[in-house]
Amino acid sequence: MWSTFYMQEEDGRAGGVTGGGASGLAGAMGMRGGTSKRRAVATPGTSTSQVGQVKMVYFVALIGVALAILGLGTEFWVELAPPKTFYSNETCMVAHYGLWKRCLRTLWATDIDPERESCGPANLPGVESNCTYFKFFTSGDNAVIFKRTTQKNLNMAAAGLALFSLFLMVTASVCIIMTLSKGEKFFLKPASFCFIFSGILVLLSLVVFHQSILALLASDHTVPLHHELSWSASCVGIAGTILIVAGVLFMLLALPFSPCERCLTHNHSAT
Fold first, then answer.
1. What is the first-listed, main subcellular location in coarse terms (predicted)?
2. Which one of 2, 45, 51, 192 is separated from 16 by 20 to 30 angstroms, measured CA to CA?
């Protein structure tokens, strides 16, 4: 009888230990699960509305990238035109060039505005001739345009700034694609800086190019020349502005809070 009593008591203790161990294990698992859930909630990400905002700003940035590529790849940055009286009464010649290539164009005098003193503009119907890439990218020689000599250091500096700006645009685009595919806001910060600096470099390239034009005009005064920036330079200027604005917007989206909501909350609490 006593042996039966002791055996029942030992079985009860074993069952209690087993039950306590199971409940303790379940409690530990629950604590770990709760911790992992809290960690999952605390992980920063992008919501559906933020993804839409990122796509919209990226579309604006792509417009700037397209304008930058169009402006940097074409040769209508500046037009150089001598007076119409410098040539015959039937034709005159105008030159236009960009970062990489220059062209000479023969225009018909009848197509030019009678009130215009110089030849041009270059978009008039005419005969395109002698389109060549600048030699200072290959052999290091300067080019001569209407007896004026280009300054290769300034031209190469403008081209280098333009190429580096394109590299930053590609890097920023990769960061935005990573943001949209991974859903992480971390990539918005480097994308914003890349877009802002690419816009600044594009505008600096335009400024340096304008200085190269002034140096070209000052190299000789035998033939009077009229110069004006053309549509490629306008594309570059607009592109630089758009890229800077897009970079600032991406920087605002990368903040852990919404500035608009913070201002509205502050005004509501003040009232």
1. membrane
2. 2
Q: Would you say 205 and 165 are in contact if contact means Cβ atoms under 8 Å apart?
A: yes
Residues 6 or more apart from 173 whose CB is under 8 A from it?
Answer: 61, 62, 65, 191
> Which pair of tokens denotes residue 57?
């700003």
The DSSP bridge partners found for residue 145 are 148
Instruction: Enter the tokens of residue 117.
Output: 């003193």
Among 171, 134, 175, 173, which Cα is nearest to 156's? 134
User: Cβ distance 147 to 156 under 8 Å?
Assistant: no
Domain map of the chain by residue range? 48-254
Please work out, in degrees rounded to the nearest 5, the angle formed at the alpha carbon of residue 132 by the alpha carbons of 131 and 134.
140
Q: What is the pLDDT of residues 208-233, one digit of tens each?
A: 999 999 999 998 888 888 889 999 99
Query: 91-97 and 101-108 as β-strands: parallel, antiparallel, unpaired?
Result: antiparallel
Token pair 């590529």 is at which residue? 69
- State whether CATH 2.60.40.730 applies to domain 48-254: no
Distances (CA, A) of 190 to 116, 175, 181: 49, 7, 16
Tell me the per-residue pLDDT of 130-162, one tens digit each, with 9 for 90 and over.
788 888 888 888 888 888 888 889 999 999 999
Q: Residue 45 — pLDDT band, cuts 50, 70, 90? A: low
Q: What are phi and psi of 82, to 5 degrees?
A: -75, 170
The confidence score (pLDDT) of residue 238 equals 97
Does pTM surpass 0.85?
A: no
Encoded tokens for 207: 């400024």
